[in-house]
Amino acid sequence: MQSLTRWTIALVVTMGLGTFFMNSGVxxxxxxxxxxxTVLKIADAFEKSDAPGAKKLAASLxxxxxEDVMHLFKPRKDKxxxxxxxxxxxxPDGIELKVIALAMNEPPKKELxxxxxxxARAAYVAAAIAEVALVQTEEKAKGKSPKDWKNWAxxxxxxxxxxxxxxxxxxxxxxxxxxxxxxxxxxSCHKVFRD
Length: 195
Hints:
Blueprint: H1 2-23, H2 28-47, H3 51-59, H4 66-70, H5 95-104, H6 109-135, H7 137-140, H8 146-169, H9 172-193
């Protein structure tokens, strides 16, 4: 009987501690929120033309799982960033999908007029993600070519900055060209480095 009581107490204490840690914010959900917040701060730095500030912030994510950072490109419905403040205002509502769509076709002038600020912001977020990839060059390129990793990440970052500039200038042909550059660098890198 005494043994059963001890087991019951141990089980209750273990469950209580588990519940405490799950509800205290310790864990993946909080980490994702911090990663997302830092990526948005890096995007802010790029928007202000503060490349050194962006690099410094990106260094704080050096040990984060890059896959978690890259998933911010996914659609808002997948609990990622999406494009713009309002879900569905820009379609497709995911940075990666929008870049792919823009690389295939120039955006209609009217659409670009309406979504230029949102598209520019998404491009700065893409530049931020590329900056995080750059600070992880040594880790992610082990056994492969760090030079290629760096070139493709820099190409993605530069393409994203060009996309932001083109979106703000509301130039459809330049938007397409910048999106092609981003898409090409992403696909080249993924062929070699994606697990």
